[in-house]
Amino acid sequence: MKIIKTVLILLFVVFVIVQFIRPEKNTAAPDLSKDISTALPVPDTVAAILRESCYDCHSEETRYPWYFEVQPVGWWLDDHIREAKQHLNFSDFAVSSLRRQYHKLEEITEQIDLGEMPLPSYLLVHRHASLTIEQKDLLNAWVQDSRAYMKSTYPPDSLQRRQR
Ligand code: HEC
User: Fold this and answer.
1) What residues does each domain of the chain span?
2) 77 within ligand 1 shell (Cβ under 6 A)
3) Largest CA distance in the chain
4) How far apart are CA 80 and CA 57, in angstroms?
5) Is the CB of 46 under 6 A from ligand 1?
6) What pLDDT tens digit does each residue of the chain (164 aa) get?
7) I need a labelling partner for 108 at 20 to 30 A (CA). Which of 27, 94, 102, 144 fits?
8) Reduced to 3 states, what is the DSSP secondary structure of residue 61?
9) Which atom of ligand 1 is nearest to the CA of 108?
């Protein structure tokens, strides 16, 4: 019994100590010159859906829940946000290459159609973020319009992926 007690106390001490190791928050002041709305027309209806369902991970404006303050939960959330931003960051979309922008738009539709985004673990706690069929249709239509817009605005070889 004594050993169990010691282990529990040790675990508690470790738990208390890790509370002091906090990830930095992903909340830069928004710089509109880099935002996706600078690169492409984004209707308000679309912007609202992206903000509600995607921005917590794919932007620099995460709205943090209280349990972010509890480690190791906060580390786990931070990890998702970092990884998500590497793949797609709406807050600096306008500064990525046209090729990347064009391709990321296509990936958005892919992820929505596969039902992989928003992440299922996120939807467990953020039910409001789950996409209705109408919202999916609206986003997909916007992706199509945006790709058509890019195609008619830029020379074709600026949108094609480099041959490998
Ligand atoms: C809880 C965090 C979270 C939310 C919310 C979220 N994503 Fe993601 N997303 C990720 C992570 C993590 C990755 C990278 C790993 C992966 O593909 O699973 C990712 C990857 C992606 C990718 C890139 C896939 C690729 O092949 O590179 C796209 C596109 C994407 N998400 C779109 C969206 C859209 C659109 C929404 C909103 C409808 C959304 N995500 C909401 C976490 C999130």
Assistant:
1) 2-158
2) no
3) 74
4) 7
5) no
6) 899 999 999 999 999 999 999 999 999 888 999 999 999 999 999 999 999 999 999 999 999 999 999 999 999 999 999 999 999 999 999 999 999 999 999 999 999 999 999 999 999 999 999 999 999 999 999 999 999 999 999 998 999 876 65
7) 27
8) strand
9) 29
Cα of 13 vs centre of ligand 1, distance in Å, is 35
Q: Determine contact, residues 104/156, Cβ cutoff 8 Å.
A: no
- Joined together, the tokens standing for residue 104 give 């990321």
CA nearest 122: which of 70, 69, 44, 67? 67
- Residue in 111, 123, 143 to alter for ligand 1 test, most ligand atoms within 8 A of Cβ: 111
- Ligand 1, pocket-test mutation among 81, 119, 138, most atoms within 8 A of CB: 119
Write the CB contacts of 6 (distance below 8 Å, at least 6 apart in sequence): none
